[in-house]
Specification:
Blueprint (H helix, E strand, L loop, with lengths): L4 E7 L15 E6 L2 H14 L6 E7 L11 E2 L8
Length: 82
C-alpha cells in the first residue's frame, strides 16, 4: 500500500483544535508519498502563515484512515503553528 500523506490548512476556531471554520478557503498544499516530504511541505506552509494565529496546517496520514483505531492526523513534534 502506498503511504500517501495530505497537507492542508485553514482558519481554525481554536488554535489548539482541529475545527476548521471556513471550508471554502482550505489551502490544499499537496499529496506526498513520504512523511518526510509532507512534513517539509507542512513546515513551509506553517512558516508562511506564522503571523496568523487562526491559520493551522496539518499532515494527514491518508493510509492510516483505512486502519481502524487511528485518526490519521500527524502531530509534528514542533507544533508551534500546527
Amino acid at each position: 500500500m502506498s503511504k500517501l500523506h495530505l497537507v492542508f490548512g485553514g482558519k481554525v476556531k481554536d488554535p489548539q483544535g482541529l475545527e476548521f471554520t471556513d471550508l471554502d478557503h482550505i489551502d490544499l498544499v499537496g499529496l506526498y508519498d513520504s512523511y518526510a516530504a509532507a512534513e517539509e511541505a507542512w513546515r513551509g506552509a506553517a512558516q508562511r502563515s506564522v503571523d496568523d494565529a487562526e491559520m493551522k496546517y496539518v499532515v494527514v496520514h491518508l493510509h492510516r484512515l483505512l486502519e481502524p483505531g487511528t485518526d490519521g492526523i500527524a502531530r509534528p513534534k514542533d507544533s508551534s503553528n500546527a
